[in-house]
Amino acid sequence: MTNLNGRIFISGLLLAGFLLWMSFSWQPIDFWVLFPLSLAFLTAYAYFFEQIEITSLSKKEWLLGLFSGALIYVGFAFGKGVIVATGLPLLEQLESLYELVRPRETWHYLLLFIIVIPGEEWFWRGFVVKRLKQRLTPVHAALIGTLLYAGAHLFAGSLLLVLAALLAGFIWAWLYVKTNNLGVPIVSHLLFDLLLLIIFPLI
User: Fold this and answer.
1) Burial, 144: exposed, middle or buried (Cβ in 10 Å; 0-12, 13-18, 19+)?
2) Helix orientation angle between 159-179 and 59-86, rounded to the nearest 10 degrees
């Protein structure tokens, strides 16, 4: 990366970490106000500094997005089962996390599907992974992009959120580097959140 591109990349990562910390930790303003605003800001940042293309999805890409979204949900459900079966002291943290991020009002759902999910993919895959892919192999770009995505979630103060970002983030990064179409991880992310937060919540 040139010095300027490197500064833009690093600044974006620092900004994402700060906004995640603020969204999950800053109590005076509601999460469902701060988090969508944060993702809208990160989307604008990515749009300003990186050309991102979303093309029409083929039938194969639709199936790939839907299958992967369902698969990630199954992985999370299995993880919850492991926590319950082993008595790991994480169930209370899972309940607290659900309490914070679960949509309750109609406008929460609108923000989730219109701003939050597309915004996460636009920034983390369409900006971060795409820039890494210009310098690294697809596998390395997906791996490092996932570590950066999960690392930023450390600022949210939840181990479970970091683990979730590692699992789901790698699949979404891999979908992007394999298809070069941001629409595929967006579809996967949309179905995953639909299952996790609305249709079959784990709590």
Assistant:
1) middle
2) 160
Q: How does pLDDT run across 161-194, given as a tens digit for each residue?
A: 899 999 999 999 999 999 999 999 999 999 999 9
pLDDT, tens digit (0-9, with 9 covering 90-100), for 31-86: 999 999 999 999 999 999 998 778 899 999 999 999 999 999 999 999 999 988 98
CA dihedral (185, 186, 191, 197) positive or negative: positive
CB atoms within 10 A of CB 139: 11
Residues 6+ apart with CB under 8 A from 109: 103, 198
The one-letter amino acid code at 3 reads: N
Contact between 33 and 116 (Cβ < 8 Å): no
For the CA atoms of 15, 16, 17, 22, what is the dihedral angle to 10 degrees? 90
Q: Cα–Cα distance between 131 and 58 in angstroms, integer?
A: 25
CB-side neighbour CA atoms (13 Å) of 174: 12
* Overall residue count recorded for the chain in this entry: 203
